[in-house]
Amino acid sequence: EIHIKEPIEKEVNPHLLPGELLLCEASTVYKYVQEDGSNRGTYGKLVCTNFKISFLDDDSASDDNEPQFKNKIVGENDITLQCVDQIYGVYDEKKKLLTGQLRKYPEKLIIYCKDLRVFNFCLRYTKEEEVKRIVSGIVHHSQTPKLLKRLFLFSYASAAPNNTDGRNQTVMFETLEDWRDELERTKGNVKYKAVTTNEGYRVSERLPLYFVVPICISEESILKYEGRGIPIWCWSCHNGAALLKMSAFPKEQDDSTSQMQKAFLDGIYKTISKPPYELLKVDDLSSSLPSLQDIQTAYTKFKQLFFIDNSTDFWATDVKWFSLLESTNWLEIIRRVLKKAIEVAECLEIQHTNVLLIEENATDLCCVISSLVQVMMDSYSRTKSGFQSLIQKEWVIGGHGFLDRCNHLRKSDKEEAPVFLLLLNCVWQLVQQYPPAFEFTETYLTVLSDSLYVPIFSTFFFNSQHQRDTNKSGESLKTQSGPFRFLTVWDWSVQFDPKALAFLNNPLYAEKPKPDRSQRKIARFKHQRQLSLPLTQAKPSTKRGFFREETDHLIKNILGKRIGKFINSSDEPPNSLREFYDSWHSKPVDYHGLLLPRIDGPEIKVWAQRYLRWIPEAQLHGGGTIATTAKILDLMEEVQSLQVKMDEEHSQAVSGDVHSVPMLRNSARLSSLFPFALLQRQSVKPALPTSTWKDLEDEDDLVKRDDEFVDLSGDML
């Protein structure tokens, strides 16, 4: 039964950005509520612009009850064209993938998004002509290949006023001075130099205008093979050891060419490897890490677990959750990448050895490993501005092909791979293992991953600095010729107002203490932790029916605690690496020193906030980390108020402020996936098809326990 709302009295029009044009629309479209298998929903208008697909109902016209964490650019019912993953049509209850020209138009439209939202629209009550226009318009504008200059990025840049906040602290690495400052900050300027050889892109269009190489490398060497075979500096450790990367030579070449290239490489290695004073370890990532194709295949399987059409589907798949998760191999890839970063950190920190990462173009897995190593070893990279500068240096200026890897132009699925998302998943593992070490929150990482698909920022929409520079020139709509003024994603005020921005900053961040010269020893932040992790992996159970033990916890928020033990731990770390790993984990953590992720079995978890935030069944109301954070903040405020009273008595100034985070007062009503699920109503578990429970024991007991879960969620505090 469908409950029809009263027709909308006033015309609801979409909010259009500068340069945004309405392309097609359809009225009387019915949007289903995803929470259950019923046909409940709301009527409204479905529109498609050159920027987004948007559903407008009568609630869109009112600003009442707006969440505090609201994106100013992309609303709750908006999908940017780049965020559309796949579109399905439903014909006589059968789903069919929609691409290209359509002969027959569907009665239902299902849109799967890259941020894992699922939209279900019913078109039965819409006029036939409008259905044709809106369906063909959405499919054409979101699924067919397009030219770079057709991206909304250019329409927006030519029409939007340039009044962005100029106080951005992120180092953009677009000038020679930026590179020299970074060399000085890391004390790398003794052995390395910033070069201008690629000005005018005369060496290579792949490389940035400015980069850093060992002092002994000549300009002729850089020019010889278009920058291939040249060690490019990423970062220097406090002990002088450096992390370098290099573009490999093509493998299939004739003998004479490969001999010349081998001789060239030998000469280069000799200049940077001078035992016993300067040691060098070369690591070819194409052979030691999964291929981009493996990463793409794993993520494609993984994301399917979160495309839930309705509540019944959720509970049907939940019984097989662990085996489905294990079969994707995504968490195992994250574990392998983290393990590789630990290997590199051990070489730099303990062995004082330079590490040279090699990859075909040094713009994919090199970016992941070099960024992770810096996050683990350099506390500056764990601040917000430091992390943003790191992304600029290694990814944006470093030449990661965001346009191809995110497939923004829909030109080739073969080039697509979630490499940047892999980095964010790895950083999230560190953030959730060592929260006080990071100035930013997991919410920051989640909105950063969402920003990959918002084409008003140039940050993630070019393959290289050369491509960005050559496409900068253009005519503005105000008839003033001149270069486009692209926005950078690091100006978060474009997407969020100050209240929402508070969610991106970690109120529990342990800021680096200023050294007190009067005291010899600096107090280190200590953290109670278990001693060294077991040397042997837990043996997988021979009994395949382990789900029976798990069925009384059907909510996936427990996923992190059990997932890992079902994941195959491939090759064990070598003895020296294991010794380094265990030794570090047996000591108290210095939040401003080296951080090593815990990678054994159950420690690798699913990033619940990003992947489960649109699934009400996967949320604990009044539970999760947000409940803990709320309690800690209450204590901090209490301590601060006592401090104020003490200071008043002693007539001293207040020592500092606690960063207040809005909306944490009523934590019992918040979801564990806050702030994306704010005060959603509790999802009621539907009656399941009997086939789902046929193979499970103790069916009666499970039914009785159904209400126990509701009680538990209230007691999580």
UniProtKB/TrEMBL annotation:
Subcellular location: Cytoplasm, Myofibril, Sarcomere; Sarcoplasmic reticulum
GO CC annotations, alphabetized: membrane; sarcomere; sarcoplasmic reticulum
PROSITE patterns in UniProt: PPASE_MYOTUBULARIN
SUPFAM superfamilies, A to Z: (Phosphotyrosine protein) phosphatases II, PH domain-like
Start and end residues of each Myotubularin phosphatase domain: 173-611
Keywords from the named record: Cytoplasm, Sarcoplasmic reticulum
Top-level lineage group: Eukaryota
InterPro entries: MTMR12-like_C, MTMR12_PTP, Myotubularin, Myotubularin-like_Pase_dom, PH-like_dom_sf, Prot-tyrosine_phosphatase-like
CDD domains in alphabetical order: PH-GRAM_MTMR12, PTP-MTMR12
A GO biological-process term: phosphatidylinositol dephosphorylation
Pfam families, alphabetized: 3-PAP, Myotub-related
Family: Belongs to the protein-tyrosine phosphatase family. Non-receptor class myotubularin subfamily.
Protein name, UniProt field: Myotubularin-related protein 12
Organism per entry: Hypocryptadius cinnamomeus
Gene expressing this chain: Mtmr12
